[in-house]
């Protein structure tokens, strides 16, 4: 008797339970399946959501966008879907196209670009009335970047799950796990982090006012830290090495132009690094990033060093100019003395020629001739003695005038060169002290300061 009953039951079991369930539920023709499934429409429909980050594709500082690939799971109860698995060969769940049933109009509030991933066209229905839907999305979302400590920064980006049109009175979202479980699960599923390291995820529920109605929102906050090693090696260290080269330029001689050209080249190199930094950081930052202060500070210190080099070269050149001026004066004085000596020789000739003047008297011609000869001889001797004394007096006057001019206009030889060397030494110690304090304070802020 029992065996016969089992045989009849086997004959009555359908070979196509899927079609039988579809026919039983009347999914293709029942329009009620397309409306919000609620037993009492005055009460909300609860949607249980779960989200995980599969990949961190990119974080664009300039655009302030966060590009990620996310996995979203939703579960809700549909009052139209119930069947007894015993009547359908033990079938307790099945997959149907999403077009046959109502599903929540879920959206990510921060999303700014249309999803490029292929949507999941199926949903899973259970015999107890629960419906599950899983989808993968490539999300390009807005994210307010905090770049004060770049490249040692930590970013917090949020993804808010909410309904497009349903208010909180009709649709409510709820999440399954706490923050610890969400973080552990996300780390297990994460396949790509790019240049970022996932610190953790938090989830919370809020009721927010949107368009004069409250909406239920589940907010996921992704906390991630930048891997800064590449920026340190490719940017911070090269700028610091350029600054060390600027310090090393103090051993180069200031007497020639090599030091000036070397420092100008270093200044141009730092300018190029600043242009590269300008292409990385956004212009809409609320505060000046420390890396910008670092570059501007290094640039300013090198600019002051360049100005000091120009001043030292000017002082040294001033000494060289005074030496050339002194040589020109000595040359002109020697030429003037030569001209005066020539004039003196001409006067001597004139005086000698005039010495033949004679006086007419009553004495005989022979006496007059002898007297004239004696007078002429004595006059020539007196004039000769006076002429011998004249060059000595003239040379002494010239020497006195030169000494007076040198004392009045000139200092000791190489005076400005010694001043320039002392100034260079003092500036070097001040420069090293200020630079060290600047770098120590800046790096301490970089390590200890919180993101603003």
Question: Can you offer a commentary on this structure?
Answer:
Its main location: membrane. Keywords: Cell membrane, Disulfide bond, Glycoprotein, Ion channel, Ion transport, Ligand-gated ion channel, Membrane, Postsynaptic cell membrane, Receptor, Signal, Synapse, Transmembrane, Transmembrane helix, Transport. Forms serotonin (5-hydroxytryptamine/5-HT3)-activated cation-selective channel complexes, which when activated cause fast, depolarizing responses in neurons. This protein is of the alpha+beta class. The chain has two domains: 11-227, Neurotransmitter-gated ion-channel ligand-binding domain (Acetylcholine Binding Protein, Chain: A), CATH 2.70.170.10; 231-319 and 428-448, Methane Monooxygenase Hydroxylase, Chain G, domain 1, CATH 1.20.58.390. 48% of the residues lie in helices and 22% in strands. It contains eight helices and ten strands. A six-stranded mixed sheet has the order 3-5-6-2-1-8, with helices on one face. α6 runs antiparallel to α8 (415-448). It starts with a helix and ends with a helix. Residues 1-13 and 348-373 have low confidence and may be disordered.
**Main beta-sheet annotation:** 6 strands, mixed
C-alpha termini separation: 82 Å
Oligomer: single chain
Structural class: alpha+beta
Q: How many β strands by DSSP?
A: 10
- List the helices and strands in order: HHEEEEEEEEHEEHHHHH
Strand content: 15-25%
Rg for CA atoms? 51 Å
For this structure, the CATH topology of the largest domain is: Acetylcholine Binding Protein, Chain: A
Shape: rod-shaped
Question: Overall pLDDT, averaged?
Answer: 79
Strand order in the sheet with the most strands: 3-5-6-2-1-8
| CATH homologous superfamily assignment of the largest domain | Neurotransmitter-gated ion-channel ligand-binding domain
> How many helices in DSSP terms?
8
- Stretches with pLDDT under 50, minimum 5 residues: 1-13, 348-373
């Amino acid at each position: 008797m029992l065996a016969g009953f089992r045989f009849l039951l086997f004959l009555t079991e359908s070979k196509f339970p899927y079609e039988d369930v579809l026919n039983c539920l009347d999914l293709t023709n029942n329009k009620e399946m397309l409306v919000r499934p609620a037993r009492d429409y005055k009460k909300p429909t609860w949607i249980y959501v779960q989200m995980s980050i599969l990949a961190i594709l990119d974080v664009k500082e300039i655009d302030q966008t966060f590009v990620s690939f996310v996995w979203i799971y939703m579960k809700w109860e549909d009052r139209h879907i119930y069947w007894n698995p015993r009547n359908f060969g033990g079938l307790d769940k099945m997959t149907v196209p999403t077009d046959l049933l109502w599903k929540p109009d879920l959206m990510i509030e921060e999303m700014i670009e249309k999803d490029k991933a292929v949507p999941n066209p199926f949903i899973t229905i259970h015999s107890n009335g629960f419906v599950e839907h899983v989808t993968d999305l490539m999300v390009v979302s807005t994210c307010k970047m905090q770049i004060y400590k770049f490249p040692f920064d930590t970013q917090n980006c949020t993804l808010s799950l909410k309904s497009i049109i349903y208010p909180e009175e009709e649709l409510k979202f709820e999440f399954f796990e706490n923050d610890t479980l969400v973080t552990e699960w996300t780390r297990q599923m994460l396949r790509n982090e790019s240049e970022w390291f996932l610190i953790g995820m938090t989830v919370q529920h809020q009721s927010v006012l949107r368009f004069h109605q409250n909406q239920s929102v589940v907010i996921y906050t992704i906390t991630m830290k930048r891997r800064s090693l590449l920026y340190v090696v490719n940017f911070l260290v090269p700028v610091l090495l350029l600054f060390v080269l600027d310090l090393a330029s103090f051993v180069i001689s200031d007497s020639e132009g090599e030091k000036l050209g070397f420092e100008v080249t270093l200044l141009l190199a730092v300018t190029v690094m600043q242009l590269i930094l300008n292409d990385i950081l956004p212009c809409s930052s609320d505060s000046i990033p420390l890396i910008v202060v670092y570059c501007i500070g290094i640039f300013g210190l090198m600019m002051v060093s360049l100005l000091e080099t120009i001043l030292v070269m000017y002082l040294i050149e001033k000494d060289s100019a005074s030496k050339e001026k002194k040589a020109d004066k000595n040359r002109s004085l020697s030429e003037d003395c030569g001209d005066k000596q020539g004039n003196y020789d001409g006067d001597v000739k004139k005086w000698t020629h005039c010495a033949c003047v004679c006086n007419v008297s009553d004495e005989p011609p022979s006496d007059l001739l002898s007297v004239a000869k004696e007078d002429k001889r004595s006059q020539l001797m007196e004039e000769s003695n006076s002429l011998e004394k004249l060059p000595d007096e003239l040379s002494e006057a010239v020497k006195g005038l030169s000494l007076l001019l040198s004392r009045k206009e000139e200092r000791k030889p190489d005076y400005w060169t010694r001043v320039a060397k002392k100034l260079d030494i003092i500036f070097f110690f001040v420069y090293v002290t200020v630079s060290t304090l600047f770098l120590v304070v800046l790096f301490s802020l970089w390590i200890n300061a919180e993101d603003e």
